[in-house]
Design goal:
single chain, 25 helices, Dna Topoisomerase Vi A Subunit, Chain: A, domain 2, five-stranded antiparallel sheet, globular, 11% strand, alpha+beta, 569 residues, DNA primase DNAg catalytic core, N-terminal domain, DNA Primase, Chain A, five-stranded mixed sheet
């Protein structure tokens, strides 16, 4: 292992790294949490501070800080190394600019562009006054690094050339566009919102059209965004997530808004667990990011039918992920940013009193004064599908009871309709489940035995609870003897420590594992013999059938003997 990786490990304890993504709870000498890599209700994810490793007993993932960041960020080792080095303040080799990768240069381009836009905003009183007129404070403008793109065609391009960034690099970062006349700036005459990834590095921009006397374009899109680049994947980036994730974890709740201004104003009034989809549809990747920190989400979108309709796919996805989905009631023709500017307390109240999506839709339908028949039809279309998506049967029963009461019906017909919808959902797409090629029973037993032997081997001779040499000899005979790499060895030691720390009779525990292993091997042999027996009987080979039958009885006898030993082990 290189000196850089060792230095990073020394500076960054695994507890600090993991706790920046998920909530950890003390569990003796270790810490535990619900695994961020698969859905589970009971925490089986263990972090060992002494070993600087982690392991999930549910999905079997484990490793060190590098493998954790690789997994949770969806990056390769090289990128995980860069993320952790930046966090640890470790300078990696390859420091010369000419040796930096295209991605590293792209980060430099984007950071320089952010500084350029910020400088432009400070120089442009009209743009700055406009932003402040929307309620944004100086502190928020600085915190979110808001900027301004001038109305010229090549202002940013020229600036970046002066900073020794090429046109190819600038295009790679998504900042310029090429036509038959050459390159020109993508963002012109716009208020600029820099978009950061989960680590706080700028990966793209969103530009809001700002009309002034010098505007080049009068008929244009209200917002334009950076294109997809090597650094900017819209389905994996939530605006403000880098600043909100700690509060989300602490409060066990996330607020989701649509636009950048909505987010900035929400944070400004104290709702610091807010993130934004930035005008893009909510994706599975977005929800996976949030679910690492919380199962509770409040949707605070524009208070009109269009805002809710655009959010329906997000509601569906979040419910399918087993999340508790609530909706904040925003006044009609108002967005969260406007409400925060006019009446901050009203926005805070709307979030705090947010109703579950099912209650929200049911109440909205009841308020419309439909006749009984129309109400039943609308509830069937707008409410029951959400009940069908709720995973918890107790919660489902709760909502079925509420709907039945509102419609003046018994619960049975409501349940029947919900079950019909469930069947349709499962026909289209089966409920997502964590899948992985399962380890064989033999492999699992071998891992447990190896873990105990390695764990005890680390201890001083007088502290050992088992005979290491005898255990190793016996294990060598029963296992395939395949070598175990250092990373897996550490993982197995952690598993053994968690399971058997404090065991009053480890030798007995180990003996039972050896007996289990012996039984598993014999049962494997028994299956082969039974297959031989069926084949011999099928071709009427009496001699082979007799031999197979004898072996069957011999193996069966050995298995029974092992079962007897279990009584005394």
């Amino acid at each position: 292992m290189s000196s850089s990786t060792e230095e990073i490990k020394e500076r960054l304890p695994i507890t600090d790294v993991v706790s920046s993504y998920i909530k950890l709870e003390r569990a003796g000498a270790n810490l535990k949490a619900r695994c961020p890599f698969h859905n589970e209700k009971t925490p089986s994810f263990i972090v060992s501070p002494s070993r600087n490793t982690y392991h999930c007993f549910g999905c079997n993932r484990g490793g060190d800080i590098f493998s954790f960041v690789e997994e949770i960020e969806g990056v390769d080792f090289k990128r995980a190394l860069e993320i952790l080095a930046d966090r640890a303040g470790v300078v990696l080799e390859r420091a010369r600019p000419e040796l930096k990768s295209a991605e590293q240069r792209a980060y430099g381009v984007l950071e320089e562009a952010t500084l350029f836009f910020q400088s432009n905003l400070n120089k442009n009183k009209e743009a700055l006054d406009y932003i402040k007129s929307r309620g944004l404070s100086d502190e928020s403008i600085e915190k979110w690094r808001l900027g301004y793109a001038e109305n010229g065609w090549r202002g940013l391009l020229s600036h970046l050339k002066e900073k020794k960034y090429s046109e190819i690099e600038t295009e790679y970062a998504g900042l310029i566009i090429k036509n038959d006349k050459g390159y020109y700036d993508r963002f012109r005459g716009r208020i600029i919102f820099p978009v950061a990834n989960a680590q706080g590095k700028i990966v793209g921009f969103s530009g809001r059209h700002f009309i002034n006397k010098d505007s080049l374009e009068s008929d244009t899109a209200k917002y334009i965004n950076s294109p997809e680049t090597a650094l900017y994947n819209k389905s994996r980036v939530l605006y403000g997530f880098d600043k909100a994730k700690q509060t989300i974890m602490r409060e066990d709740s996330a607020i989701l808004v649509e636009g950048q201004a909505d987010l900035v104003m929400s944070h400004q009034v104290g709702l610091k667990n807010t993130v934004a989809s930035s005008g893009t549809a909510l994706t599975e990747e977005h929800l996976k990011m949030l679910k690492r920190f919380t199962d509770n989400i409040v949707m605070a979108f524009d208070g009109d039918e269009a805002g809710l309709a655009a959010s329906e796919r997000g509601f569906n996805l979040a419910l399918s992920f087993g999340m508790d989905v609530r909706v904040a009631k925003i006044p009609l023709n108002t967005d969260p940013a406007e409400l925060a500017a006019k009446d901050p307390d009203a926005l805070i109240k709307a979030v705090k009193t947010a109703k579950h999506i099912i209650d929200f839709y049911l109440d909205s339908l009841l308020e419309r004064g439909y006749d009984a028949r129309r109400l039943k039809t609308e509830v069937g279309k707008r409410v029951l599908p959400y009940i069908a998506m709720v995973r918890n049967r107790i919660d489902q029963a709760h909502f079925v009871g509420i709907v039945a009461k509102a419609l003046g019906l018994g619960e049975e017909p409501v349940w029947e309709e919900v079950k019909k919808i469930e069947m349709k959902i499962f026909e289209v797409k089966k409920e997502e489940k964590y899948t992985e090629t399962p380890a064989t029973k033999k492999e699992k037993i071998c891992d447990k035995i190896a873990g105990i032997l390695y764990w005890q081997e680390e201890k001083e001779t007088e502290e050992r609870q088992i005979d290491i040499s005898k255990g190793r000899e016996r294990f060598k005979v029963l296992s395939d003897g395949a070598p175990i790499d250092e990373a897996k060895k550490k993982d197995l030691i952690l598993q053994a420590e968690v399971h058997y720390q404090g065991s009053e009779n480890l030798a007995t525990e180990l003996e039972r594992l050896f007996l289990n292993l012996e039984q598993e091997l014999l049962e494997g042999e028994l299956k082969k013999v039974m297959a031989d027996l069926r084949l011999a009987e099928g071709v009427k080979d009496e001699e082979k059938a007799r031999t197979a039958l004898e072996k069957f009885h011999q193996i069966s006898k050995k298995i029974n003997e092992i079962k007897q030993k279990f009584k005394y082990a």
